[in-house]
Predict the structure of JmjC domain-containing protein.
Amino acid sequence: MFSSSSSFFVVFSGQNQKQKQVVKCERGMSMGPINIKGEIERVNGKELSYSEFVKRYMEKNQPVVLTGLMDPHYWRSSTDWVTLQGQPNFQYFSTHFGASKVQVADCDTREFTDQKREEMMVSDFIARCLQLEEASAVQCYNENSSSNGPSISVPYLKDWHFVKEYPEYVAYVTPMFFCDDWLNLYLDNFRIHIDSDTQQPDKEICCSDYRFVYMGVKGSWTPLHADVFRSYSWSGNVCGKKRWLFLDPSQCHLVFDRNMKNCVYNIFDEVSNSKFPGFSEAIWLECTQNAGEIIFVPSGWYHQVHNLEDTISINHNWFNAYNLSWVWNLLLRDYNEAKEYIEDIKDICDDFEGLCQRNLAANTGMNFYDFFTFISYFALANLVLLRYMNRRYGNGTGSSSTISQHFSMNLGCLRKIASEMKSMHALEGNHDYVVDMIEAFEDPRFSKLCMHVGRTYIMIQEQSYLSLDFECTSMCDLVDLNDMKSYTSQIYTPEDLIKFIDNGVAELGDCFIEEQPILHVA
Ligand SMILES: O=C(O)CCC(=O)C(=O)O
């Protein structure tokens, strides 16, 4: 149903196992060649166990296309949102969600490092798509009669917080591989960053989670980027087709300028060799993703995406024990950059560190305090759950022990990050900041977080026999509060957090040494 005037013509020529690709676009831009080494691995998700997914992709930080995971039984969107011809059902969107306000990118207009965006109602976005389709048909006619009509920019609906906006409408069920998602579990209960200066009710939804719907016509696209917080992401095509180009993180310096400040915007543009001297050396992986396929995008992989057909996709960003170090490393790098940027006003600034942290939050989406609160809450939640499992199942074997190992591994990862924060002297010198574990305990949002984390791991390990038991559990059942209060305390620094974790685990009788295999995080 959708069509646009900027489709791609692709010519391949093999060259020593690598392919040199020349791409031209209809609007007359000539595009430079890029080296494509190969394709992303494709695997049937139904034949993959969770632990295989962890070992082969999450731990190794490798991309994969997963088939067979978008069963229409769990993915209402794949029937409701798609016509019998396999195209986006515009009418359905206008009727049911037409009044929603969404962000729409103009794919033809660059604004800084991204495309220019505009807020509009879904019904207006749909009207634009239909207008484009009509214009495209007219243009086709005119091309035959060799006259050109006005060109219309290509709209792309992005980052629609659909789940948050329509919690009752279950459009899809997140595949199990992507459920160990600390980012969205946390955001379902807390805000990552609260800026009292700029807090507005309108911003509630836009900062509320990282679960999105994307809807774009053929020819719409997303410029080269790495994901927010250097999180993992997954993207499932409800309908349509996308072409992805990927760059391994070890090559990312090649798409930056000499100062490592500016990144190439469109890898198919003529990229200036003097501005981006490494670009022509970059070796890309590609993939064409069909309807019903899900792509796993690992941390720090730069990627550019083109909709080859009118496409609707679901997209989540997330992180957990396997990639939390990416988040911390990004924060540290961005913090150093923020600091360097205002170094010359340091002497005249009353609260230089505070300003660096405010700028970090504004640019990156969170600062050291937000991150430290986040890891402290997750440490507490994992400790509570580990104690619960120990009390309930002892040193059991089988699934209950696998779940306990997962909690232990999480604690090992959190401890490791806290040690890195400590060695970087992060949060040092601020005596006002405190994470109060007792307050957290008494906060109903925290007990919800614990229940969700517990239920998630039980589901991941397919321990359905535990889940009923767990469903009925309140915070008081989960943990003996008096018992916990005996060692909970106020956490001021990463060192306090390390001690807190060590004490909590020591009480369980485990020997909590970093080298222990159970605590190993890749
Ligand atoms: O599907 C797209 O256009 C872009 C998805 C993507 O790259 C992302 O969310 O990081």
